């Protein structure tokens, strides 16, 4: 995996790796459109011009406005979202949220499984992109 970058953006911690990021939102926060706009700045800095995936490590309890997924779909190089819920309630919320996102959306028991899945999605997307540019 190599080096990673770390951001503390107030409401969350963000860990940036080569082709994915992990975001851990703090307890009691609300993820809404404003956070998505702030998030795009980080994405442009680290992932401009290459496919990437978002992993939500839901260690804490917080709220998500499902309309943020419509904003996320506007990010052309965001090819997948993975969620790691910490309990059944968080899993049910993630399943509901998945209805608002029209790209690959996976729910996993642990970080290792989520990372493996996003790597497969990114590899597939990169292969399809290479075929289209030939």
From TrEMBL:
It comes from the Bacteria. This is STAS/SEC14 domain-containing protein. It comes from Psychroserpens burtonensis. The lineage of its organism: Bacteria, Pseudomonadati, Bacteroidota, Flavobacteriia, Flavobacteriales.
């Amino acid at each position: 995996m190599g080096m990673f970058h770390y951001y503390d953006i107030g409401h969350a911690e963000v860990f940036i790796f080569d082709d994915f990021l992990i975001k851990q939102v703090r307890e009691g926060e609300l993820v809404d459109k404003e956070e998505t706009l702030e998030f795009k700045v980080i994405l442009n800095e680290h992932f401009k011009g290459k496919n990437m995936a978002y992993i939500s490590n839901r260690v804490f309890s917080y709220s998500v406005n499902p309309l943020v997924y419509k904003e996320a779909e506007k990010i052309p190089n965001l090819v997948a979202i993975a969620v790691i819920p910490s309990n059944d309630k968080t899993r049910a919320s993630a399943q509901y949220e998945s209805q608002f996102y029209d790209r690959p959306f996976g729910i996993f028991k642990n970080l290792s499984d989520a990372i493996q899945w996003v790597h497969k999605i990114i590899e597939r997307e990169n292969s399809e992109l290479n075929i289209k540019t030939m």
